[in-house]
Amino acid sequence: MTKAIRIHQAGGPEVLTWETVDIGDPGPGEARIRQTAVGLNYIDVYHRTGLYPIGDLPQAIGTEAAGVVEAIGDGVTEVAVGDRVAYAPVLGAYAEARLIPAAKLVKVPDTIDDQTAAAMMLKGMTTSYLIRKTYPVQPGDAVLMMAAAGGVGLILSQWAKHLGATVIGCVGSEEKADLARAHGCDHTILYNTEDVAARVKDITDGKGAAVSYDGVGQSTYTQSLDSLRPFGYMVSFGNASGPVPTVEVADLASRGCLFFTRPSLMPHTATRPQLEDLAGALMNVVGSGVVKIDVNQTYALSDTGRAHRDLEARKTTGSTVLLP
Ligand code: NDP
Question: Which of 118, 194, 214, 279 would staple 106 via disulfide (CB 3.0–4.6 Å)?
Answer without folding.
Answer: 279
